[in-house]
Design a protein that fits this description.
Elements (H helix, E strand, L loop, with lengths): L1 E8 L4 E10 L2 E11 L6 H19 L3 E5 L7 H20 L4 E4 L1 H9 L6 H12 L10 H15 L8 E3 L2 H6 L12 H10 L16
Parallel strand pairs: 1-4, 4-5
Antiparallel strand pairs: 1-2, 2-3, 5-6
Helix pairs in contact: 1-2, 3-5, 4-5
């Protein structure tokens, strides 16, 4: 059986992506890279570019599944909301193409790759290079790209196990599983605090700002 897994690491300046080809139980990297959003001053133009680029990647590689890193919850509410929007647009592009989505917490991805939920980005990238036998010249200089590939590899490793923390199969399913995040006025700070309490595993992750995407 053969399938392609698209991994995405959401970001507001750089959004990483990585693609794995899985055949006969073995994974091989197809490509990885970043969607550069730094040239867009307007937040809404960034969101539009995310949708266009993710759509282009899906059309180009026809992935069977999407593995995306879940947003963490920290003290900087504004940065968190912007990151959540970026992740949501990437999810929307996948749903629009009928691609099943699987969401993983950053700590779970690190644990799956290195056995350490607090591993550094460099440690994750190094482990990926060894596991997938990626030549030095094909390694991306952006950790966002290797983080995205790590999400895809984490999903590959879940074969025969519960596949993800959360998965969505369409708009209705997404809305039913995110009622606390959706209302007539959008997410409020109260909603954010509620989600933070319900997801303590994210509490030790540093805040992602406009200048640095985790």
């Amino acid at each position: 059986m053969e399938k392609i897994i698209l991994g995405i690491d959401p970001g507001t300046n750089l959004m990483g992506y990585g693609l794995l080809k899985v055949k006969d139980g073995k994974a091989q990297m197809l490509t990885m890279g970043v969607i550069d959003l730094r040239k867009f001053a307007d937040g809404y133009l960034k969101l539009g570019h995310i949708f266009e680029r993710v759509t282009g990647i899906i059309d180009g590689y026809l992935p069977d599944e999407l593995a995306i890193e879940a947003p963490f919850f920290g003290k900087n509410v504004q940065s968190m909301l912007k990151l959540g929007r970026a992740q949501g647009v990437a999810i929307a592009a996948a749903i629009h193409h009928g691609v099943p989505i699987h969401e993983y917490a950053p700590m779970k991805i690190k644990m799956a790759l290195t056995g350490n939920g607090n591993a550094s980005k460099e440690q994750v990238a190094g482990m990926l290079q060894r596991l997938l036998r990626i030549p030095n010249e094909e390694m991306s200089k952006f950790m966002d790209a290797t983080d995205a590939l790590a999400a895809a590899y984490c999903h590959f490793m879940q074969a025969g196990k519960p596949e993800s923390d959360v998965k969505y199969r369409g708009w209705k399913d997404f809305m039913n599983k995110n009622k606390e995040r959706i209302n007539s006025h959008g997410r409020t700070q109260k909603d954010t605090e509620k989600v933070t309490r319900e997801n303590p595993c994210h509490s030790d992750t540093k805040d992602k700002t406009e200048d640095e995407d985790d």
